[in-house]
Write a structure and sequence with these properties.
Arc Repressor Mutant, subunit A; two-stranded antiparallel sheet; elongated; disordered C terminus; nine-stranded mixed sheet; 25% strand; alpha/beta; 11 helices; 42% helix
Length: 308
């Protein structure tokens, strides 16, 4: 029968260069350690250590056995450390990065998290650029994306689906008219994400239907907040992630256009460097966002008018 204690005594005897030194390190009689190693050799049917009154040398088999026994004990200690850390109260600092729009949307969640975990400090770095989480030392990245993220060593956790839709100010629609089908968008001023000049179009999707509509942007930019502000001011229609216009729809400064069509099928994902998720503070934030983010989206959807 496998007895890890015997492996433990053997490894310590080797690490300390003999039974006497190992007995002092472990606080056990020398005879106990020597006897357990002899019993291990007997059970294996091999000699692991050549020992005399003047020497303590591993055999070839002993060296091979030592490498595996040492690795096994290291993994056993790591397993206990993981359990201990998971049971510990979350404490310390978590570094998270997300876009400006995402930061505004989750601000309430972050406040609730800090209340729930008073010993956790949070550093939130806000940027619209993709950050190398490992290189720059972040624990979590919160990202919206409409195409699969590239394969990497990062752990990916999907939080929620979040479609893109078209929005406009009620005042703009009162003057220009409300589009009844995607093709009508071509006649309206558009506010478009990006700065390109070729093949400008929006793709509208509903069930298995796809309609591509050419657009003539009145305003283009790489900042969604600026595009949203221009839409609120009545300068045209804009395509944005639904969550990003959630508060404006609730307040009535924007309203969905062609609400049963989407222009992108996007999702929100968490990215976590390997092993960081084992830290209690990081695990606490991950679990909190996984549980609460979909609820935040659902509250916004519940407040939006139903599609006609």
């Amino acid at each position: 029968m496998l007895d890890l204690n015997d492996h433990h005594y053997f490894v310590h005897a080797v690490d300390h260069g003999g039974f006497t030194a190992a007995s002092r390190a472990l606080g056990l009689p020398k005879s106990t350690i020597s006897r357990r190693v002899i019993e291990l050799e007997s059970r294996l049917g091999v000699r692991l250590i050549e020992r005399t009154s003047r020497s303590f040398v591993m055999t070839d088999v002993g060296r091979a056995f030592y490498r595996h026994a040492k690795a096994m004990l290291i993994e056993a200690e790591a397993a206990e450390d993981v359990v201990t850390s998971l049971l510990a109260e979350p404490t310390g600092t978590v570094r998270m990065t997300c876009s400006f729009g995402m930061a505004r949307f989750v601000s309430g969640l972050i406040s609730n998290f800090l209340t729930a975990y008073p010993k956790v400090n949070l550093v939130q770095y806000t940027t619209n650029k993709n950050v190398d989480l490992i290189e720059e030392g972040f624990d979590i990245g919160l990202r919206g994306h409409s195409t699969p993220l590239p394969d990497s060593s990062l752990v990916q956790r999907r939080l929620a689906e979040t479609p893109w839709q078209v929005f406009a100010a009620p005042t703009y629609l009162a003057v220009e008219g409300t589009p009844l089908e995607p093709a009508d968008i071509a006649q309206l001023a558009t506010l478009a994400l990006g700065t390109g000049t070729d093949n400008l179009s929006w793709q509208f999707m509903r069930d298995d239907q796809t309609v591509v509509v050419p657009i003539r942007p009145r305003f283009q930019g790489s900042d969604m907040e600026s595009l949203k502000d221009a839409a609120i001011a009545g300068h045209g229609v804009v395509s944005l992630p639904a969550y990003f216009a959630q508060q404006e729809v609730i307040s009535g400064t924007l309203e969905p256009v062609l609400a049963d069509w989407v222009t992108q099928r996007a999702r929100i994902s968490l990215l976590i460097p390997p092993r960081r998720s084992q830290l209690p503070s990081v695990r606490a934030l991950i679990d909190f966002l996984v549980a609460e983010y979909p609820k935040l989206l659902a509250r916004g959807v519940a407040n939006q008018p139903a599609a006609s």
